[in-house]
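Just curious. Invent one:
>
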Amino acid sequence: MGRTLRSPGHLALMAALKNARLAANLTQTELAHRLDRPQSFVAKYENGERKIEVVEFVHVVHAIGCNAIDVLEAVQHAEFAT
């Protein structure tokens, strides 16, 4: 396993979380408020400037109201697609 920042899986995670947020009709600011974090926290993980830890991921998908398994399946598919 090499570097994960900007890997296909990381790019898929960024896109899946952003798409889930948009599908929930949430702005970055609204999601950040739900997470009790600054808007820049959401912007940085959506733009790939920072990684998101597992516990943070759980909080994010809960705040969005999306299915964590769907997001992880998108990451797995992107990371291991042949």
